[in-house]
Amino acid sequence: MIWLRTDAPQFFSDLGDVLRLFYGDVAVSLSEGDTVFEHHFTDDGGNWTDAWASQGRRSVLSRPACDGTPLEVKRLRKRQIKQALYNLLRDLTGMRPPWGSLTGIRPTRLLYEAMDGGMGLEEAVAHVQQAFDVSPDRARLLGEIARMQAGLREAPEDCFDLYVGIPFCKTRCAYCSFSSGEIGDGSLVEPYVRALLREIELCRGLMAEAGLRLRAGYVGGGTPTAISCADLERVLTAAQAAFPGAVEWTVEAGRPDTIDGDKLRMLRDRGVTRISVNPQTFSDDTLRRIGRAHTGRETVEAYRLARTLGFDDINMDIIAALPGEDVADFTRTLDAVRDLAPDSVTVHSLAIKRSSRLHEQLAVAGKGYGQVSREGAAEMIALARERLTADGWRPYYLYRQKYMAGNLENVGYAKPGKACLYNIGNMEETVSVLALGAGAITKWLFDPKQRDLRIERAPNVRNIEEYVRRVDEMVRRKREVIFQGKG
Ligand code: SF4
Fold it and tell me: How many CB atoms lie within 10 A of CB 256?
């Protein structure tokens, strides 16, 4: 266990994230432990100095004190204390994580922050690389993403995006940490759909009152196509009637074994512009191991059917570093994706969150379960980038999660003109997201054009039965956030 003896315990969680960049899922405490990291902060009026020491090494970082808003002061304090600890850890371990000291923040946000401060794109890329010790390769990736997002990132001020969650899946994937349940005998579907329809109806009133119109809609999960065609149509029809005029509607038809001609025709006829058919991998052995009840062949068939029925914007999700896979397996998945030529491809690095079954399995079976090394994960992610960009896909959004293989990233790649507005708005936080359904989290933006953008969240309860019982309360939570201070 690591003992953080720090003058700034308020940053405990952020400092723990920095330690985990180097030591993996290590336990950290403020009051005990066998390896001590000692920290002292001084503010002499003109300068802030953070000094860290451990195992005979020391790192000291100073910068002129900031006299900005309280939020700016807190942000800069946090960055400096993390950077100083990071420098010490780099010195102690000789490791250099691909995203440097960045944790808990979207790297593109820092890029845009620098650009808002007057830097050009190249200068901002160099600044992020230098200030946070980001690798040159990752810094270049940020620049490419910013170029792809040009003209797509900003949303009109009178708009919101919509997320509708269908939290059912046929089986539960071993790595899943979402608020999704196995559909089982389906008995929860009808009460859930009815509650969702009520939430849609009540939120129609909220958005009308706020004078906002829908820009992009996204039906996710779970697996929306896990429920019947008729039920999914009820939800979609209600959402489109309540919030008309969207320029984009995505439905995750994630699991190929939940897709059929009737569902695809219904989605097409309801004006769904984009769907996702997610192989994750084309290895049937891996699919079995991770608890997905479909084969690679079924993915190909579902994809071809969607194309035949006229879908011209199809995304595929794949995952690097799945347990038991090596670079050759992942290469075969990339080959299959190239041959199918979807319009966009989202490449995830496996994140083994504590709430997933895989986390438990690894805890019991250890590395024998086939956990991919940091180096292996990095090689796969680099290969995906090289292959996809060579074949005409371009990176257009990225995000990082805790517990991700090799501290890497998830990147969405798209062919020209096929970038998903919802994904960009949600990841870059340039538009408010009204989120409906169990476990969905509404994110509301205040003063989006200001430096101190404030984001308030209104989470719905995750448990399906609780959600059904308390749906009116979920809407009240949203009202309180959206209209705070306005009675
Ligand atoms: S399809 Fe997605 S939501 Fe469903 S169990 Fe798998 S990871 Fe979880």
Answer: 24
